[in-house]
Amino acid sequence: MIYPQNSLEKLGFDEIKRGIKSYCISEMGIDMVDKIRFITNYDQIIKFLRQTNEFKTIIQTDEALPIQSFYDIKKLSDKAKIEGTFLSEEEFFQVYNSLQTAFAVIKYFEDREGIYPNLEALFEHLPIEKSILREIERIIDAKGKIKNNASRLLGDIIDAIAKAEQDARKKIDQIYKNAQANNWVADGSLTVRDGRLCIPILAENKRKLKGFIHDESATGQTVYIEPEEVFNLNNLVRDLEFEKRREIIRILTELTDKLRPFVPILYSYHGFLTKLDFVRAKALFAIEIDAKMPVLLNEPKLKLVNAKHPLLVMSGKEAKKTVVPLNMHLDTSTRILLVSGPNAGGKSVAMKTVGLLQIMVQAGLLVPADEESEFSVLKQIFADIGDDQSIESDLSTYSAHLSKMKYFTENANGKTLVLIDEFGTGTDPQFGGPIAEAVLELINKKKALGVITTHYSNLKIFANHTEGLENGSMIFDNVNLKPLYILEMGKPGSSYAFEIAQKIGLSKQLIDLAKSKINIEQQKVDSLLLDLEREKKEIYDKKKYIEREKKNVETLVRENNQLKDYFEENKRNIIKQAKLEAQQIIKDANKLVENTISDIKSAKADKETTKKLRENLHVELKRHEIKPAGNKSVKPEQKEIVAGDWVKLIETGNIAKVIEVSKDNLIIAFGELRSVVKKNKVEKVGQSEVPKEVKKANSVSHTQSAVDFVSEIDVRGMRGEDALHKIEQLLDRAIMFSMGSFKVIHGKGDGILRKLIRNYLKKYSEVDRLEDEHVDRGGDGITYVYLK
């Protein structure tokens, strides 16, 4: 329950409903928005939230739903179910269009079965009766008019009307020409009077033409005569028109009779289309205010993460201004937050944001806050906002406040949210302060949740040492004397009355005089609050600086660890390769020695032969010898190495393909293996020097990797540096496999992640341009990256 009822209007919920109505495409949807209410059933709330969230997903990422237009078919069904009544051509056409929309939408969801389960529940067990469409199509054409061949009799009547009209026209044209030849006709041509085609005749000649006079001109000089010969033909046309109308009514009555058994299912289609329009409007409004689906709990808890007042979001978009987000929490240990601070510092807005978002969630609406925000299902919201003085009830402003406080203290419980703006005002602070403190103590004992704004120092002190209460303040820049609209929990805030008065321009003499009139204790309290506020601002700035530096350090450490892991892996690969080379060299040397000994034995120790074999052995061993780096001869200067070239490692003689060139380093590939070497450790080789098996290994690896390449990455919910790392990996692979583009899904939010990602990608010369996704498929929540 909401108490008092006008709290919904004061918190801005009526404006929210008006915003949703603007997206409805039917009167039924608008009527349903009017019925939005504060509900306390967890299952119902979560169902409504999920339906809206699924529709929002469809709008942002899927194909558009085939919703064009539909009408209030409930009213038409009510009319059709009465025996003897019939629907008009236009009404049947409205039923037809509405059913087409309903069937197209059902088909849309059937094609995506299981993807949007909460929206599918809207038409669960709802059959598709296409026989209704077929019956209407047989009678009504694509423009909503009855077909000429709806019945054989109707066709005959229409043909007879056409013939009679043709005969009447031919006859009147003949008479008109004859009257012209006799100079009986006034200026002008054939004209229609009382639905009959007439000839304009000069008044003095009216006796010369037999017929029926239907009208005369204002001057009386011209009369409009329907010739006698045409009169009977026109009467025939009129009779045929009546007959046509009777036949149309008979056909429509017959069609209505066929429709009557389907009235119950038409009601079901009406309900489905109405709910669909309603959920669609909620989803579109959610997109307008950057709303998301929060976490819904049954325990008494409230956590707002980067929450914004939806009406401020709407007005901020129009004025191109950003809204400062609100972060706060309430739970079993911190149930009531007492917010203090300067006037116009944002206290009331913060309190109203909490109340409005809680009501929106319990009305099944998404809210402009991060998805990790948490809301509980409350039973009551009590609000005391603004001036409720009443002349009729003989209540002053303070009396009105007290009557609400009485209700709050008597009816609050652990499932209640209490919102009080400017607590204790309206009477002498000497007495208003203690009464407010007593009320606060009673509400706290009831274990209600609450957000209360105040300037009273005694309440700040009371909250400071009372369990369940927490001070909070709106941060104020006391150097530039301007509010920052940031809520900080844990410390009370000063009202900055003298500082603001000084900024406005009140004289120093007046301010000093005012200071001399407040008691010493109050001066001490205000002075202490100012010092705390100043320290808090300094700590806040330092905290932000430390967080930035911490992120930089974490990034450097992570990059360092990645490089370390990379070099360790590279080192292991090189050692492994060297061992394999060494084993092969030893194996070849042993084989050579064994062959030499065998040849010496077979030559029976002939000196010349032995000498020759030894020389061959020495040459072969010399060829396999690994020379020290210092003894290497200077190579001739080779051609520039680029990506795609083949190179040979000087140390081992292995051949690899160049994947990327980075300054003095090369990224090379041995089949699936990747390694980094210096340019001076390799020499370029021609295609003809590369063994076929090496080419094949690299070709297969590259092709398989390219086939596995995924040109889309979703970084929503990631931290900035994690997202950039993933995107960098995808960019490397895209460049390696010569891909033209890839897609980054980062979401909209406040646009911080999008800006970070786009600024990062712009640094790469390989990136040609960045573009938004189409507005129907995600808009600026998705970035297309096109490579050169």
Automatic annotation (TrEMBL):
Record field: transmembrane: none
Coiled coil regions, renumbered to chain: 518-606
Gene Ontology MF, one: ATP-dependent DNA damage sensor activity
EC class name: hydrolase
Sorted UniProt keywords: ATP-binding, Coiled coil, DNA-binding, Endonuclease, Hydrolase, Nuclease, Nucleotide-binding, RNA-binding, rRNA-binding
Annotated Smr domain residues: 713-788
Record-listed ATP binding positions: G341, P342, N343, A344, G345, G346, K347, S348
InterPro entries in the cross-refs: DNA_mismatch_repair_MutS_C (IPR000432), DNA_mismatch_repair_MutS_core (IPR007696), DNA_mismatch_repair_MutS_sf (IPR036187), MutS (IPR045076), MutS2 (IPR005747), P-loop_NTPase (IPR027417), Smr_dom (IPR002625), Smr_dom_sf (IPR036063)
UniProt EC number: 3.1.-.-, 3.6.4.-
A biological process from GO: mismatch repair
Main function: Endonuclease that is involved in the suppression of homologous recombination and thus may have a key role in the control of bacterial genetic diversity. Acts as a ribosome collision sensor, splitting the ribosome into its 2 subunits. Detects stalled/collided 70S ribosomes which it binds and splits by an ATP-hydrolysis driven conformational change. Acts upstream of the ribosome quality control system (RQC), a ribosome-associated complex that mediates the extraction of incompletely synthesized nascent chains from stalled ribosomes and their subsequent degradation. Probably generates substrates for RQC.
Subunit structure and binding partners: Homodimer. Binds to stalled ribosomes, contacting rRNA.
Family: Belongs to the DNA mismatch repair MutS family. MutS2 subfamily.
Name recorded for this polypeptide: Endonuclease MutS2
Organism of provenance: Pseudopedobacter saltans (strain ATCC 51119 / DSM 12145 / JCM 21818 / CCUG 39354 / LMG 10337 / NBRC 100064 / NCIMB 13643) (Pedobacter saltans)
Organism taxonomic ancestry: Bacteria, Pseudomonadati, Bacteroidota, Sphingobacteriia, Sphingobacteriales
